[in-house]
Design brief:
Layout lengths: L1 H44 L10 E9 L2 E11 L2 E10 L15 H12 L6 H4 L24 H14 L5
Antiparallel strand pairs: 1-2, 2-3
């Protein structure tokens, strides 16, 4: 009888170990598959498919829930950004781009600094730099709100402008 209990207990331990190994394998496979999907998505989007964009002024937006949050205008000459500015910028509330006393002034400055980073640079080469705004923005984080920017909104607005084509020559 003791031998049967011991065998059942041993089988139970084997099942637990087998379950743990199975879960670990599933996690490992999922991690590698996810990495491959992420890498292939990244390769599809960067570089910008080596498309030569026409010289001119482009306008693009980033919208969420049918509200425009970021509206940019930028000018390209031979693939180089010669001018870039916001037409509209919105977070949880509308940011006033021109007000000196806006409580979100440092956030606005971070957005503007990120967009202006592209001026004088090749768009294809430097647009991915915006994914790491901490490396290009020198404006300090707002101590009151601790707000930071979501530079992917700028990237999406720029891509939208490129997809729409030249707004004016």
């Amino acid at each position: 009888m003791a031998e049967v209990k011991n065998t059942n207990f041993r089988n139970y331990i084997y099942l637990i170990i087998l379950g743990i190994v199975g879960i670990a394998l599933i996690i490992l496979v999922y991690t590698f598959v996810f990495r491959e999907i992420h890498v292939s998505m990244h390769e599809r989007h960067w570089p910008l498919q080596e498309i030569e964009y026409e010289d001119g002024t482009y306008r693009g937006i980033f919208a969420d829930r049918d509200e425009i949050q970021v509206n940019v205008q930028f000018t390209l000459k031979d693939g180089i950004v010669t001018d870039a500015r916001f037409r509209h910028l919105r977070g949880d509330e509308n940011y006033n781009l021109d007000a000196e006393d806006d409580p979100n002034k440092s956030v606005v400055e971070m957005y503007v600094e990120s967009l202006e980073y592209l001026v004088g640079k090749n768009l294809e080469e430097h647009l991915p730099d915006l994914y790491n705004p901490g490396q290009i923005v020198e404006t300090e984080i707002d101590g009151y709100t601790a707000a930071t920017i979501r530079s992917s909104k700028i990237i999406s607005a720029i891509r939208d402008g490129l997809n729409r084509g030249v707004y004016s020559y």
